[in-house]
Amino acid sequence: MDYSSDLNFIGGKVTRDGTLLLIESDILELEFNERPAMKHNWTIRIIKENMIKSVRLKNVPLVPTEVDMFSDGTILIVQVRCSKDGNDIERNARRYNPNGQLIEAFTLGDGIEHVQIDDKDTIWVSYFDEGIFGTSEWEYPMGSDGLIAYTIGGDKLWGASQYGIIDCYALNVVSTKEVYFYFYDESFLVYLNERKESARYRIEGDTVDQFVFDQKGLIAQTDIYTIKRFQIRNRTIVPKEKVQLIDENGKRIIGPVFMRGSYLYAYGKEAIYKVVF
Question: What element of type H or E holds 129?
Fold first, then answer.
């Protein structure tokens, strides 16, 4: 679909039902580490079936780069870093109604890699190394398990402490019965069903940032410029070939890519492209 905006792209996410969410702002340069964070306005674009809805969030004391949507249409935005000074802890997650009104704010911890919501409104959060092992502020980090499932209000339900995660690079939450995560340092991709392991694969040759499965194997982004097809052999996933995303004129699509479930979106210069596997 044709798409352009007079605002600046900040981040994006595919929801569990294939809706694309974009975070946009009129800010040219973001100060991610400034504390306290300056209040700014943010626009959430909700793109589904060639329809676009915009939600304006005003005077938000966060710099959100993660966004997703609950089953009732309320929106979750999350700032990946979270400051802590003794008992004074930043609330880096905020839930808004479809009119842009704040419902609640809570804390999901520091060092967040990915945030995705499943069909039962469980919030899945994966963490990178500083969120797992802590910083000078976070002696006992919330993300020490590497991957955690929270309630809609931010209470912990489950953690992946048994996996010894150093960095949870990739997360793909299809539903509560189908959650995939890829972590270091074992380079395993794990499939969870109702928070219990159903399968485990070793990925060889590359680090994976996001991925989708198709009939032939796995398609994954390995860095900001590279997408590859991987082949599954028993319980091992190996790189096979690079994948080029092209538009209707055969030109390469250069821009952000978003993957989740069976959906892949590519955000080109003047259009957004969608593939369903």
Answer: helix 129-133
